[in-house]
Amino acid sequence: MRTHLPPVLQHHLTALRMLLAFTVITGIAYPLLVTGIAQAGFSHQANGSLLTTNGTPVASGLIGQNFALPKKNPNDAKEPLRPDPKWFQPRPSAGGYDPTISGASNLGPNNTDLIKTVRDRRAAVAAFDGVPPVSVPADAVTASGSGLDPAISPAYAYEQVARVAKARRLDPAEVKRLVAHHVQGRVLGFLGQERVNVVELNHGLARLM
Amino acid sequence: MNDTLAGWLQVLALVVALGLSHRPLGDCMARVLTTDRHWRAERLIYRAGGVNGDADQRWSVYLRSILAFSAVSVLFLYAFLRLQNHLLLSLGMKPVTADQSFNTAASFVTNTNWQSYSGESTMGHLVQMAGLAVQNFVSAAVGIAVVAALIRGFSRKITDRVGNFWVDLTRIVLRVLLPLAFVFAIVLVAAGTVQNFHGIHDITTIAGGHQGVTGGPVASQESIKELGTNGGGFYNANSAHPFENPNAFTNLIEIYLLLVIAFSLPRTFGTMVGDNRQGYAIVAVMALIWGASVAIVTANELHSVSSTAGHAAGGMMEGKETRFGIWASALFAVSTTVTSCGAVNSFHDSYTPGGGGMTIFNMMLGEIAPGGTGSGLYGILILAIVAVFVAGLMVGRTPEYLGKKLRGREMKFASLYILTTPALALVGAGLAMAFPGERAAMLNSGPHGFSEVLYAFASAANNNGSAFAGLSANTVWYNTTLGVVMLVGRFLPMVFVLALAGSLAGQQPVPVTAGTLPTHRPQFVGLLTGVILIVVGLTYFPALALGPLAEGLH
Questions:
Q1: Which of A55, B85, B102, B296 has the smallest count of CB within 10 Å of its CB?
Q2: What is the largest CA-CA distance in chain A?
Q3: Which residues of A touch B206 (CB under 8 A)?
Q4: Number of folded domains in chain B?
């Protein structure tokens, strides 16, 4: 039957059949096999490294969260979030830690809005944590790439100890020990940066109470 | 350990890993592209496709097969995107709009993976894995197939046959890409990348709020996205997203994957032409440019050069992740723009003028250092031909490369190749700047806004796919124009490369004499590097002056 087709059509028919073959192999069989192995061998990681409280998932250990005071009007999407002094605060996020809109601010290195935002954040964070503005680290005043960054620098975590301890009426030394316990070194000693996972830290803080 | 030492060790670890892979992977690919023996699984695929696996093709038939395969792929993917709401695992996503479907189909088939959509709010799981990820495999294989044909042009003599596209395609997917992607997908999952079929599930957060946590078969797509220098993220934040790239270890793995094939192909080239020193000269040029670029971007970011926002913040952390920091972000940014990958682990729009400008320049080099899978090597071989020609002009000899004469016909194909992408990038950016509606798509104003538009067209024309993502490119105009630019930027150069391959294969090699320019010595490495920088520099200097240079000097 194929021999009756004009060569151009036959060429494209071959192409389509090859594409379908590759779709079955690389588009169906391959991801299913990887999923099978992942779920069997590494189900914790494959399902998002979830943290639980009393058996209920409360966070992915990889995805940052807001630690804000309840909104005055829960239905007002525009109402700005106010940080809750009882929790360690994460970095600013372009998408408000909503995993369905991951991404960055994309503001340029000399964008006047960004410069103003950074300065405002520095003043706000310094006042909130009761430290001099000059000591506020860069990660506290810049939005991350993903908008879901779960980590902050150890410097920013230690900066928040006194404020959290005061708000929770805890011994600052105890809170500081908790932070020290959550400082993660570079992977293999040299990859990436030292950091504190705020989600895990706050999860630990909740258990402390 | 301080930042600087850790940063250098990270670069060193990457270089060692790539160095150790160079020979085995390069030799493996050479065997794959030259052996006569078919696997049984391959014979089954040939039967399914109605292909004769033992018949070599002329360059024109080889080209026609590529074009037919790619045309069918665009139509198939377009239909898939338009109809995704009727399919399994659609997660309730709506059909993708017509212009965005065209853009996305063109983008993935051309190995560009420019994304005017946001994965987590546009694509269901099935279209990601059986539509987009399939193109991640086959578009990468198409690039390697084309360079295989070009290498055969050098290594064969007096023949009009340059190989069989269907055989090359099948073998590259089955013997190279699929095994590597599989192994590294498992490594990524073990290290924290997600792999499931969940939709968005709501959780009550630690502080008592609500958060919709996303799912998806991410790791299986992540490994081929890097390995095939595709770069299309499962999620909008791409490799900055913790579910795609959870820590600094997976980050190094991803950088390694996106470089390893392109840095190993020169070995394949050396082996196939019977002189490994030729491959070493090429890989030396690639490594030189990559290394210089890493140094420039890292230095600019570390010192917040010419960035008021960076100085105000006390560091260039806007758009970067804490777990990576500046060193691992800059290393990724350079590696993804000198290859045609385009995945990002930090957002280039917020880089310093020098750092961000360098990522644009990297793409303007034509994705050759080391470039995309296959496309990087054929790109740099074209420039090597130009370098040999320039040297020939200086001494008044008919130039020859690897025993093949570079006559008027060969030089015409090489010149047309070199003219194609700059014409597309510059005309495209110029057009966008001429229309007020398209100018309004910029997020940032002034020279940086122009850089966003220039980046978009440089990225599309060179099939990179990364962006200064502030640009609102999901409009009918940008989707259509960039889609056309990607298609022409991918397939027109391939026409010239394959025509050149055919022309070279037909020649009888000329013997090496005392007057032949040696193309394996440091002298040639220097000459080729110089030619690359001059050709690219002269072409793009005015455009760069209006964007990153103006901003940096401001």
A1: A55
A2: 86
A3: 51, 53, 58-59, 65, 67, 87, 199, 202-203, 206
A4: 1
